[in-house]
UniProtKB/TrEMBL annotation:
<dbReference type="Pfam" id="PF06906">
    <property type="entry name" value="DUF1272"/>
</dbReference>
<dbReference type="InterPro" id="IPR010696">
    <property type="entry name" value="DUF1272"/>
</dbReference>
<protein>
    <submittedName>
        <fullName>DUF1272 domain-containing protein</fullName>
    </submittedName>
</protein>
Amino acid sequence: MLEMRPDCERCGTDLPAEAPGAFICSFECTFCAECSEDLDDRCPNCGGELTDRPTRAKALHAKIPPSDERRFKGAA
């Protein structure tokens, strides 16, 4: 089951599980549409292809909650 990470790892944009616009690689590294495009649809962590992440119906969030662990680290 997908974690449905809540933010873009590169810019920190919120990516709600029920909304389109998130892109993931096979390791679930997660990026917004703008960052994915800037990265030429390649994950900077593993080099894998970034593809559309499916959405999860909001009605299922109580039973199968999306992750709340944010991955954006900000400027180092």
